[in-house]
Amino acid sequence: GEVETAHPMVDTPKVIAHRGANNQYNESTIPAYQIAAEYGVDALEIDLRMTDDGELIAMHDELIDRTTTGTGKASDYKLKEIKEFQTVEVFNNQTIEEEIPTLNEIMEVFSDTEHYYIETRLVDGKPVMEEPLIEMLNGYNLISKELVTIQSFSQISLAKIHELAPEIPLTLLFGKGKFNLKEATLVDYPFIGIESTDVTRKNVNELHKHGKEVHVFFTDLDKQKEEQERVKSLGVDGYFTDNIAFTKELLEEE
Ligand code: G3P
Ligand code: CA
């Protein structure tokens, strides 16, 4: 596959706020994104789930159990029902409860002041969140302003996005231990998302040779700092960071 457009490597890697400033406030909530924005990050990372009545909400897990006061699948609730639950997390021995935001509510707050790095996924095996997502992004003029990147583990989802809005830069994600260099170099998308332990010098160099940027995410919080230092030495292009202050400082070092 040919790379459709030239995407020059950025000199300064991108700091992408993974689920907002999730080490300071309940992940994927508006305050978590506000804190991230105050740091001056390059993008806000937002995972999407779809409710039973077709609304897009910011939520990582399929089940609402880990992050909220509720239980069960997000997709089994109507928006009005899911809004009755709160996200809940403990920071410094303090329990914080905070509303589950819709994507629309997040965009109401940040409008065109931030770059949105949105993760799509299939819903019960079907690409159904892509159309309403593109419609919403167009409603805020975010695509024409180049304020959107879309990432997915699903090539079906990315293909659908590409068909609906070919100007959006896309990221194909590979799960931990599942990185496939051949597959990554064959897709036409400019960015490849890899879990840090799959980031080797060879993988980074090959992806760069094919004109791709490498955006790294981290699944082991305890090893994230050393992993960020390691992948920095390999010249990666973006960090889905769970510690914005650390990453910004790391990237400022010579
Ligand atoms: O989007 C990069 C990273 O977020 C992918 O992993 O599971 O945290 O969404 P996950
Ligand atoms: Ca994600």
UniProtKB/TrEMBL annotation:
Stretches assigned to the GP-PDE domain: 13-251
Domain of life: Bacteria
PROSITE patterns in the record: GP_PDE (PS51704)
InterPro entries in the cross-refs: GP_PDE_dom (IPR030395), PLC-like_Pdiesterase_TIM-brl (IPR017946)
PANTHER family: GLYCEROPHOSPHODIESTER PHOSPHODIESTERASE, GLYCEROPHOSPHORYL DIESTER PHOSPHODIESTERASE
UniProt protein name: Glycerophosphodiester phosphodiesterase
